[in-house]
Amino acid sequence: MTTTHVTPAEVTGARTAEAADVITGARERIDALDDRIIGLIQERMAVSAVIQEARITSGGRRVNLSREMEILSHYSEALGKPGTALAMTLLELCRGRI
């Protein structure tokens, strides 16, 4: 059985070893950031569940549309059109489809 050695440059698509090192380090940082983002989203989902439960228990509706519009606006202002899509995804994760 032969083993083929794959160089870091081949894995990263870089043309030089130096660029491969930069890309590898940056990818590690992105992976760590993604793990933190996922954790924050999970925390946001838990907080949202508390809010929804309190609202429903008090006789209110599960979703507050004016608050959701504030969130959409906030993300849109900060990140442009993709921010709106991101906010919609977060809202769906945190409250489900309405």
From TrEMBL:
Domain Chorismate mutase, which positions? 17-98
Record InterPro entries? Chorismate_II_sf (IPR036263), Chorismate_mutase_highGC-bac (IPR010958), CM_dom_sf (IPR036979), CM_II_prokaryot (IPR002701)
Q: Is Kinase given among the entry's keywords?
A: no
**Classification via Gene3D superfamilies:** Chorismate mutase
The record's EC number reads 5.4.99.5
Superkingdom of the organism of origin: Bacteria
Q: Which residues form a coiled coil?
A: none
Q: Which SUPFAM superfamilies match?
A: Chorismate mutase II
Could you tell me the keywords of this UniProt record?
Isomerase
Q: Name one GO molecular function term.
A: chorismate mutase activity
Q: PROSITE patterns of this UniProt entry?
A: CHORISMATE_MUT_2
SMART domains in alphabetical order: CM_2 (SM00830)
Pfam families, alphabetized: CM_2 (PF01817)
What name has this protein been given in UniProt? Chorismate mutase
- Species in which this protein is naturally found: Streptomyces nigra
